[in-house]
């Protein structure tokens, strides 16, 4: 089809009808939100970070403990690291127990026979 405006000096386009580029700027460069790739249980990691120690605090305790051990004298930093490790282990165990309880309650409500069979197997 013939377009009378396609020849110079009249080559022009209406707005958003010719050579246009979709510009989608990334606006999350300065976002305070950080997204970490967590290899294990994301919900558990979130609890550890919020209830026990942030990544920075964990790294700081590890650094202090390693420096104490490098000096040959385990002291307060190593004990602090052990206490944090115990808190994390306790939280993992609590999360596991809560998950098992929720799964058992769900099984009991959905399939009572399978629930009873599981209880028999566990009591052996």
Task: Describe what you observe in this structure.
The chain has 124 residues and is mainly alpha-helical. It has a domain at 42-122. The chain has four helices and no strands. The protein has helices at residues 42-52, 55-71, 76-110, 112-122. Helix 1 crosses helix 3 and helix 2 crosses helix 3 (76-110). The longest helix is centred in the C-terminal third of the chain and has 35 residues, at 76-110. The radius of gyration is 30 Å and the shape is flat. The termini are far apart. The model has no long low-confidence stretch (mean pLDDT 81).
Strand % is under 5%
The span between the termini is: 85 Å
Q: Approximately how much helix is present in the residues?
A: 55-70%
Structural class: mainly alpha
Q: Which descriptors apply to this entry?
A:
124 residues, mainly alpha, flat
Topology:
Elements: H1 42-52, H2 55-71, H3 76-110, H4 112-122
Helix pairs in contact: 1-3, 2-3, 3-4
Summarize the structure.
By secondary structure, the chain is mainly alpha-helical.
